[in-house]
Amino acid sequence: MMRFMREAARQSVVEAAVLVEVTRGALVESRHRGFIAVVDPEGTLVASLGDITTQAYYRSAAKPFQAIPLITSGAADHFKLTQRELALIIGSHSGEAIHTREVSAILAKIGLDETALQCGTHMPFDEITARQLKTEGKQPALLHNNCSGKHAGMLALARFLGQPAETYLDPNHPVQRQILLVLARFAAVGVEEVKIAVDGCGAPVFGIAIEAMARSYGQLVGSEHTGLDENLRVAAQRVVNAMTEYPEMIGGTRGRLDTELMRVARGQIISKVGAEGVHLLGVLPNQHYPRGLGIAIKVEDGDTRRARDPVVIETLRQLGLLDTEQLAQLACYGRAPVYNHQRLEVGEIRPCFNLW
After folding, report:
1. Does residue 204 contact residue 58 with C-beta atoms inside 8 Å?
2. Are 175 and 162 in contact (CB under 8 A)?
3. Res 223: pLDDT
4. Would you say residue 120 has pLDDT above 90?
5. Which residues contact 61 (CB under 8 A, 6 or more apart)?
6. Which of 140, 166, 239, 277 has the fewest beta carbons under 10 Å from its own?
7. Could you tell me which of 62, 243, 231, 240 has the C-alpha nearest to residue 154?
């Protein structure tokens, strides 16, 4: 039995690569392991670390695909949704006033109010907004949920299709079936291969191989190099444009890597976090990668800040996608000092992998 357990532990180490070290003095005190897949839109592997056939859930990184049926069905145009509103539907927003107002506006366009949202509540991601609510003795509203935009988009599609709004989260609801078909198409996997569970906001969440996740974002940004039909290509371009034009609606006005990265990248990268250490990126076609790239990152222990952010920045650096000035602007996400309780620097959190 002990030999079996040791073998299983050894196998786990082989499957996941060490991505980040946490040092204290001369020793590496902790390590974060995970997986990275970098592919072109056709799925050709460019670089990887760890066993990228490992399956994981997209979590909120699926939101660009969850928005596409809203466009392809004609619902977005029918309700006159703006690009800014579409960006919010795709985003995991910080719960600031610019976000809650926009969700209310979407709901008003479809003849509903926030009571139709079934996403649950949590404190806003934005610390200033959260602190203000506490100071005023208020509880967070459904609108503050980072997924409230996504849910408003799902409700819009349900209303357009003439389907019941009360059951829009049921995996068998026409809204969710359309989303599943779209995601499987972009990932180039069979619908039956997609594992379905329940996300934190109550919506269906999708699990596939990390390599396939990367492929889905590669197709999203490089749709002209794929076999996608015209309707999907147009929708993909609209999603990418919304993300790059309104990055503050994808994350927030402060302290959000998605937003700051897309601003610094000046429209050349789309970025979307997911819970449990997931981060997906799409690199638009450029001189070095003329077809574009899809990048999938999964931190094995589910870390969402200490490990994931440095891995994102280091991956982009190694791929030559951020120059010296851009790296300097994002330095706070790339590595961080470790302090003790006296605010003395005693170590650092640093990426330690090599894609090549």
Report:
1. no
2. no
3. 82
4. yes
5. 213, 272, 273, 274, 278, 279, 280
6. 166
7. 62
